[in-house]
Specification:
By secondary structure, the protein is mainly alpha-helical. The chain is 75% helix and 0% strand.
Length: 122
């Protein structure tokens, strides 16, 4: 039996993919201009989205990865599906559409980054 390494690199780096996704989703959201939106997007991405992405990845992403690890073809679909579904269910109905869109974009970006950063033999 071959022991496959645990993917530490995606676990530590993928949550930072939420910053550009949240920043791009928030452009044009205020009257202050794109430069203001860009700066606030990076600020809130680092302050809120990265820690939330770490928690979400530990609570949801790692168990999904460990369960679906043998099924490599279903892994991308399930990972990005969870990255979409969890923020969507958390924010839909209670938050403005743009907030939901930013959270979903950040979730899918983190899920895709985690998938593509994983070791090839994992």
């Amino acid at each position: 039996m071959q022991i496959r390494p645990f993917p530490w690199k995606p676990l530590l780096l993928a949550p930072f993919a939420s910053v550009p996704a949240l920043t791009l989703a928030g452009l044009g959201s205020s009257d202050a201009g794109a430069a203001s939106d860009f700066g606030w997007g990076i600020f809130f991405g680092l302050l809120l989205a990265v820690p939330a992405s770490f928690v979400g990845m530990l609570l949801v992403g790692v168990p999904i990865f460990l369960i679906l690890r043998p099924y490599r073809y279903a892994l991308l679909l399930a990972t990005c599906g969870a990255g979409f579904a969890i923020p969507f269910l958390m924010f839909f109905g209670d938050a403005p559409f743009r907030t939901t869109l930013g959270a979903v974009a950040a979730g899918v970006a983190v899920a895709a980054a985690a998938y593509f950063l994983r070791p090839r033999n994992a």
